[in-house]
Amino acid sequence: MFGSILAYITLRLLDQNAEGGAMQKGRNWILAHGGVTYITLWWKFLLSILGLFNWYGNNPLPPKILLFPCAFPIHPGQMWCHCRMVYIPMSYLYGKRFVGPIIETDLPLRKELYIVPYDEIDWNLARNLCAMSFPFYPHPLTFICVRLHIRKIVVVTISSRAVDGDTWSHRQGCRSPMNPA
Question: Cα-flanking dihedrals φ and ψ of residue 134, to 5°?
Answer without folding.
Answer: -100, 130
